[in-house]
Design brief:
Layout (H helix, E strand, L loop, with lengths): L3 H7 L4 H27 L4 E5 L5 E3 H15 L4 E6 L6 E2 L6 E9 L10 E9 L13 E7 L3 E6 L4 E6 L5 E5 L10 E3 L10 H12 L10 E2 L5 H11 L2 E4 L12 E2 H14 L3 E3 L16 E2 L1 E4 L1 H12 L2
Parallel strand pairs: 3-5, 11-12, 11-13
Antiparallel strand pairs: 1-2, 3-4, 5-6, 6-7, 7-8, 8-9, 9-10, 13-17, 14-16, 15-17
Helix pairs in contact: 1-2, 2-3, 4-7, 5-6
The structure holds 2,5-anhydro-1,6-di-O-phosphono-D-mannitol and magnesium ion.
2,5-anhydro-1,6-di-O-phosphono-D-mannitol binds next to strand 5.
Length: about 325
Amino acid sequence: MTTLSDWLAAQNVDQGLASVMTTMAAASVEIAGVLRQAAITGQTGLAGQTNVQGEDQKALDVISNHIVLNHIGQNPHISILISEELDEPVHLQNQGAYLVATDPLDGSSNLDVNVTVGTIFSILDARKGLLQPGSAQLGAGYAAYGPATSFVITFGPVAAAFTLDETGVFVLTTAQLGVPAASAEYAINTARERLWDRATKGYVAENVAGETGPAGKRYNMRWVGSMVADVHRILMRGGIFMYPLDSENAAKGGRLRLLYEGNPMALLVQAAGGASTTGQQSVLDVVPSDIHQRVPVVLGSADEVKRVEAWYAKG
Ligand code: AHM
Ligand code: MG
């Protein structure tokens, strides 16, 4: 049995960087505990406030943000925290080399209904500023709070998955995730079809056409509505996840946030052999101009991402 600590000790990375993963793992264990009890302790529903993006915060969003902030504050290697739930970056009183950008609890619409949600995070060199492209990430990961709590991380070359055991320890359960190039499963919120651009409509129509259509095979659609759960499925068995630019979200630049949703997931998928695109370029190549910037996200099995890119190339 290999624990997260064993695995981290065997990686060829700076000890401070490894400690950031340990900190995020500890925060995730605490959040998992809160989620497990929330319906009993009454920590459900709205918090009665909105975040910087104008979204209603749920009680669990606020609690999760506090938990992450508390754990990060105890790690002297982290000097800056960017959170979906906080308007401004938090500058901690230390000389730590690392910046963490996080969505402390992703999948707000699935809170309070016992569907998988998660914590997503990205690790950057704090000395290089707040606005770095995803390709500059030193590490990334997420915790998925499902039937089991998974912790999936990368420092770049490989993505590994851990599962929380009953004693509160993360145990290595997949040493190297591999997203197969070919797949027949796609994930997109089809209720937005009328808003989609030509490329998204074209790609999805080909999938729906099945074995007699141009894709030549039968597809299945799976949409949890929590990015963490949808991306976790893709990392475990392949598929494609799409939250493209559409006529409604275009004014904001997309739906998902670049620094703490698009970038970490794109790095994990790349480490597992998959690909990502905004339609125009790799998600990892987008240079942010704002910490809460949004981005179109398409990621997963390489062949499927290539088909989407081909649709965008047609113009
Ligand atoms: P959140 O950070 O407010 O939870 O929003 C992000 C979520 C993703 O988890 C999910 O993929 C997407 O938003 C769902 O959007 P929609 O409600 O449009 O289906
Ligand atoms: Mg979120």
